[in-house]
Input
Amino acid sequence: MRIWFDILTPKQVMFFKRAVKLLQDSGHQVLCTSREYREAVELARLKGLELEIVGRHGGGARYDKLRASAERTLNLAERIRQFEPDVAITFSSPEGSRVAFGLGIRHVGFNDSPHAEAVARLTVPLMDRLLCPWVIPYSVWTRYGISRHRISRYRALDVAAWLKHETALQAPTTGKKILIRLEESKASYIADRGLDSIKMVDSLVRELSLKADISILCRYDDQIAEAEARYGSRANIIKKVVDGIDLVRSVDLFVGSGGTMSAEAALLGVPTISIAPVRFYVDDYLVRKGLVFRAKGPEALARTCTKMIQDDKYRKRQVKTAARILSSMEDPTDRMIAAITSA
Output
């Protein structure tokens, strides 16, 4: 088979990389496209995943997003017409969905973020098959225009696709270390609503900078510059794209403004606090299971962080709980390959 993956984000690099290798090893011809986007391109390089760059990320403004998407759709259509794939695989790529639909290519899509309404509206109705974690209700997707019989759910969170194959041991820590992951501020579901977690991060850095080593992992170049200007003397601003799993394993506490790294940290047993400005189904599940604590305000966040980094018994309990829950999940890659090859 000729199989095309459109891989746009760091999470998608991690989610698809094992499937790409397994399919290539089985003799399938695989093309992986992406766009100019700092974190995704650099992480793919670190992980040895070859990407063909077509187009660019549009930034946070509506017009810039529209123009970049339109340009990428045109260029992607030319490249995919040449490749002639039997099936397209995307994690709700608007351009990938449009090109697959326009060229009559069967489209197997993934999505665990129905809160990203703009992306869902542009992609979900065009999928021949949608796969997602079981914690997301069917009704959330059918309102976007896909029929229920075209939806398949796997009993796992997406991060299980790579965490189940990680063998590295927990890294020893010296002193107390906190990692903060900033939000995807240029995503439409955040940028359009003017949401941010700045007050939460301000409180955490102000109250904890003398009690722990704080590192901040940003998503964009301008986010790095802003964080350096705001917190540079009190926190380590990570400038390079790094392997998130190794980084998470090296800290005593993870504070996340998004979804993927929070789920990674939680299922690795690292005490995890969510300060995400929107609610996620995946976060809700992890909160119910006791693997994620959702902060209710800046002052509460600082108090909870102080308590968690001092409680070694809590950390040990989290490791055991996380291992049990992760082991109970299936591997989404198995369902992915089955859906691809059955096409």
User: Anything to note?
Assistant: The chain has two domains: 2-154, 177-328.
